[in-house]
Task: structure prediction
Amino acid sequence: MKIALIAHDKKKDDLVQFATAYKPILSNHELFATGTTGTRLMDEVGLIVHRFQSGPLGGDQEIGAKIANKEMDVVLFFRDPLTAQPHEPDVTALIRLCDVYQIPTATNMGTAEVLIRSIEDGDLDWLKERR
Result:
C-alpha cells in the first residue's frame, strides 16, 4: 500500500510518535512524506520514506499529483487546526483531491489509528485493486 505521511510543524512530534508506535505496520508499505516530516521519520523512526518538497514549497501538490494519478492509497495528514498555515490553499486542494478520488484520509491521530489498524487487518486491500 502507498501511504502519504504529512504533518504541520506543531504536529510533527505527534506523527513521529505515531510512526514509532506503528513502525511494524508502516515498514511493510511504501511511504511518502513532505520534506522535514520525511527526514524526521527516517532519522528518528528508521523508516524508508520517499521525500517530496516541504509543504510550502510544493510537497502537498506533489502528493496531490500522486493522488490524481491513482498512485496513492492512504493519506495521514496530522493537521494543526489552531495555527494559520501560509500554504492553506495547497492543504485544502490536497484534502479536496482525497475526497474526489475517495482516498482514505486521517487528519488526526485518532483517525490515523483506525486507518492503520484497517490496513493491518487487510480491510483496505480493495484500494490496491483500483489502481
